[in-house]
């Protein structure tokens, strides 16, 4: 079965549930998790500034776009959208912010009418496990800078049968918002 054979809404539901229900030691090898007694990695927002930019790709049978603003105020803000058959299927609002001596990634999903999928005060949260100049490993989600113009995001998930799996999104650097 290929990524395009699975309805997008089932895959996104799996992504949402994957973080909360995933065994801490059950992630694919290059998607790291914090053990229950581990502390998040030390980092500042400048350590992940390389994520900023306009990123475009294809997934779930449609076009994907992830836009990250540069660091400001010890945080970055991003948005994701999926467009299939010229219709928005869903949005995500994301932040990466300094918390203590580390970083935490938070996200919320929204339908095309901006109705939230998660409870009002409950974002999906991914603490930082490890960071380098080309990779940021959050608990269950990995950002990798494959080249100056290629960003890969990998998310841990569980299959219907409970087996560990992953979703990989590959983005290329897009044009700026003015089309240039």
From TrEMBL:
InterPro entries: DUF6265
Pfam families, per database record: DUF6265
Highest taxon above the source species: Bacteria
Residue intervals of the DUF6265 domain: 49-156
Protein name listed in UniProt: DUF6265 family protein
Organism: Eiseniibacteriota bacterium
């Amino acid at each position: 079965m290929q990524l395009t054979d699975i309805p997008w809404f089932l895959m996104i539901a799996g992504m949402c549930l994957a973080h909360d229900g995933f065994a801490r030691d059950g992630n694919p090898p290059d998607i790291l998790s914090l053990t229950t007694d581990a502390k998040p990695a030390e980092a500042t927002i400048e350590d992940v500034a390389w994520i900023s930019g306009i990123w475009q790709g294809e997934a779930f049978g449609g076009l994907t776009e992830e836009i990250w603003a540069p660091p400001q105020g010890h945080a970055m803000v991003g948005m994701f959208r999926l467009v299939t058959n010229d219709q928005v299927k869903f949005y995500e609002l994301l932040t990466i912010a300094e918390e203590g001596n580390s970083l935490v990634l938070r996200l919320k999903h929204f339908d095309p009418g901006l109705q939230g999928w998660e409870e009002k005060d409950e974002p999906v949260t991914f603490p930082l496990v490890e960071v380098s100049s080309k990779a940021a490993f959050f608990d269950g989600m990995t950002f990798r800078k494959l080249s100056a113009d290629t960003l890969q995001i990998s998310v841990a998930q569980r299959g219907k049968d409970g087996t560990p799996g992953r979703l990989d999104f590959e983005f290329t650097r897009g044009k700026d918002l003015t089309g240039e």
